[in-house]
Amino acid sequence: xxxxxxxxxxxxxxxxxxxxxxVISCCEExxxxxxxxxxxxxxxxxxxxxxxxxRYITIEAPPFIRDAGLxxxxxxVFSDELKSLLPEKGSVLVAGLGNEDITADxxxxxxxxxxxxxxxxxxxxRESLGxxxxxxxxxxxxxxxGKTGIETSEIIFGVVRRIKPSCVIAVDALAARKTQRLGxxxxxxxxxxxxxxxVGNSRSRIGRETLGVxxxxxxxxxxxxxxxxxxxxLEQSGAGEGDFSEKLKSQEGMLVTPKEIDAIIxxxxxxxxxxxxxxxxxxxxxxxxxxxxx
Amino acid sequence: xxxxxxxxxxxxxxxxxxxxxxVISCCEExxxxxxxxxxxxxxxxxxxxxxxxxRYITIEAPPFIRDAGLxxxxxxVFSDELKSLLPEKGSVLVAGLGNEDITADxxxxxxxxxxxxxxxxxxxxRESLGxxxxxxxxxxxxxxxGKTGIETSEIIFGVVRRIKPSCVIAVDALAARKTQRLGxxxxxxxxxxxxxxxVGNSRSRIGRETLGVxxxxxxxxxxxxxxxxxxxxLEQSGAGEGDFSEKLKSQEGMLVTPKEIDAIIxxxxxxxxxxxxxxxxxxxxxxxxxxxxx
Amino acid sequence: xxxxxxxxxxxxxxxxxxxxxxVISCCEExxxxxxxxxxxxxxxxxxxxxxxxxRYITIEAPPFIRDAGLxxxxxxVFSDELKSLLPEKGSVLVAGLGNEDITADxxxxxxxxxxxxxxxxxxxxRESLGxxxxxxxxxxxxxxxGKTGIETSEIIFGVVRRIKPSCVIAVDALAARKTQRLGxxxxxxxxxxxxxxxVGNSRSRIGRETLGVxxxxxxxxxxxxxxxxxxxxLEQSGAGEGDFSEKLKSQEGMLVTPKEIDAIIxxxxxxxxxxxxxxxxxxxxxxxxxxxxx
Amino acid sequence: xxxxxxxxxxxxxxxxxxxxxxVISCCEExxxxxxxxxxxxxxxxxxxxxxxxxRYITIEAPPFIRDAGLxxxxxxVFSDELKSLLPEKGSVLVAGLGNEDITADxxxxxxxxxxxxxxxxxxxxRESLGxxxxxxxxxxxxxxxGKTGIETSEIIFGVVRRIKPSCVIAVDALAARKTQRLGxxxxxxxxxxxxxxxVGNSRSRIGRETLGVxxxxxxxxxxxxxxxxxxxxLEQSGAGEGDFSEKLKSQEGMLVTPKEIDAIIxxxxxxxxxxxxxxxxxxxxxxxxxxxxx
Lengths: 294, 294, 294, 294
Hints:
The structure is a homotetramer. Chain A is α/β, with parallel strands linked by helices. The first copy, chain A, has twelve helices and nine strands. The A-B interface holds A 101-103, 178-180, 182, 224, 226, 229-230, 233-234, 236-239, 243-244, 247, 250-251, 253-263 and B 101-103, 178-180, 182, 224, 226, 229-230, 233-234, 236-239, 243-244, 247, 250-251, 253-263. Strand 9 (254-258) of chain C pairs antiparallel with strand 9 of chain D, so a sheet runs across the interface.
């Protein structure tokens, strides 16, 4: 049975009874936060996990909504892990993908609202503000195809050619298979991103092969597809899928989200943005970052 | 098996194999819109449908998102049916219930943004605007208990005692059992409304018995409870509920909504607001109403 | 020459060459924040400052936008001064006045988004959350007459009669005479508030005489009336007003605001809300308050 | 005395006592809407009006807020005039400039929310929707330098190189000299746009010389600079500027806007968006356009 998920860790869990050739993984726990590192090293791994070769890091935290301590721990772990995927030097372009008019899809755009863009800050301005060395950071919210008429990848490609960053960080809302993951999990990968992946639309791929620079994907699952959830339930209940194709069809276009999805998106966008800022600007304190971006 | 729905029509469907003592119902179709009128006339009906005695009118339309013609037909039918539940004369208080910070719960507050409030318009002002006779209409957005510390019913009670309307219209987002109903159905009832009904909290009841004036409830289903959906699937798949209590528990607090829920809420709020304005101000043309409220 | 201001301190400055009979005032400075206390004690003072008898406390800070330290100092001073105006015990109703759809008028409604309402929190819940004693606080956003058809004072009156608080705090955006005051000044007064004051509309007065409980007004100037600014400039330039009545007329309905008015409103709403929460809940730490409201 | 305005018509009015060498202009009135066409043909005109050579069309309407008839007339006139500046064929990129987080600057981004982007609509989809021929239109909201770290012109340049439109339409909020122009005037020009013009930052110029395709600028004045207004008043009052430099300095960063600026921005964005859609899609009816974009 097939299901929709953007998380490598869920693909792996689904296949956990099999021997996972071409996949290396390990776990770690820090401050109550679970870190899972998965590496897909060859085509066997790609087939098994339906994901391209590369490194996937998943952070699982207790719900980081409304608990300042958990928020801070999760942010620090995320920031540290992100650093391990980034080139040590060079300018960075951060892209906030998704549709800001759709609550569960607005993670990327909302995150960019708190990004500390520095590319335009001259040495003079920086010194007059009393700030240390700054890594050059730019940000863009490319919008969505239905509203712009332009593929996200085309806009990013155009900007990358112009400003020539050393790498791109692409932030996007993800789909998970399990509702427990909503608002509790963060995935990073050095493999780029395929908006609408699985549809076989190569034009839309945002990765090193199309942009010429490494693309780090950062995502937080915000929805479960209702068809996936239904199929899951049917499978576990022992019912055959065949009998329920109409049931499944009626769930198309439906999404499962937590009641407090609006608050989760706000908090997750904040966590990702502050984590990126912290990873990119080691010379700035958390207080300095906060006073600039908010 | 119990499930969560705010729709009388779904309660009736669920029991349709039984003889529905104490329930009278009939159907009608107009302009492609289906109208179902259900009347619960005694305690037998109340028990069968888990709803208080009174009249329930349900309008079912094809999805009224983005089709101007359908929107207009559905609005007209809604307005006409609403009129049949309202007292012919006297001032009206419209209350927009729900939490404006939660996308799927913001129907009431968003609807009030387009309400044509007239109570404060003096005869002089009205005549200088070239408008005909106006029915006195007031509106209020009471907020939610978690943010105000005050029961919705207490705020409405306080305002009703002060401004003494002849009736109250309470607009709220509803839960349905079936996803097909989201963004396609409108329910009206002359029975008032119990926010968090079923919890047995009589304090929060908004009805004639607490306010002293008739309360017309108007609602649009915007979510399906994930537990209800899961239980439904399990039932239909022939699986016993007992084995899946943990599965169901993990769905608690999860809601199923259409992908385009943000747009549906906006359109539904508009439809309800314009329908209420039309029902209450027969002397004004649609154009006059629109030019005042938007 | 008359001008529009809601600030007692500006009325006093304007008359500073005269002997101010019926007015007592003193200044103080704390942490770089200037505190001015003005008391109008009789009708002579009322006439001179065009304000009712009572205590007015004005806090003047350097712009508290984007400087975390200044924000914190200003918030603490505000909270302490507010406490001096509040009854020591008893439940409190906080009202967020103004129109949330008009940027410069949205201070009150935005402030209420961060109010810590506690009236509905039972002892059991409080203890299970590990919180200390809580003062009972309720909040309301009454909206504006043009949208609700109901005077703000009527809604508050209705709610006060129902929930019987020991006092009301009314938060509202104010007009100043000087642009330097925008985003830098906070005024508190124990005299209540007259939305649209000066118009002689006694119905709309929100004060002890209409509500039966003390009303503390809290406001931040967010606009300067363009007519006031123009008249001011003309006066200082030595030109007579008479020649410029048309000039002044063309400024009617125009407001002067800082470029960053959107950010100022957000920050000021946050400062006022956290200051109120701190003043009302001495048993909670700043961290506990923040983790509950945001 | 120098003042800030983005309107060619105000530059011309200011110099109207002089002989305007290098400037050709004419007026017309249609449906109560005044149309002024100014052409700057050489360097003398450029110096006199402080604007580059090219055609400037100004539309002056009675306030188009809340009057459906005026809105419709102004939209039609705008659409017709815009057509006269556009190439007859070829794809078009529409850019919504400005900061969506600052009320008075959000015209461009808000306008793009209602743009009918068609570049991604395949012939198959178009025909299945029953739509006629569509001109290829794409849209982008580039954001502002302070938030993205990228010059607006760089982002547009990158996208133009990628999607190769036949022309660019750049929508932006403007500054006027006179408050009467706010919410009543629209300016179009075939000269491109210089965000922060006058600062001598050639990098930021968005025009044919930098992009390689014609750039039509469309703008609506939403603010008057308070320094400009003050200087204007002083000049008219006969006072010398010299004495008031401190007065002027204290107005820096202050803007004059109408009270209802939020509503004006919403309506103007709607008018510009629908006008652009109408000009670009002559095969679609107003109803078809509306049902697609809203």
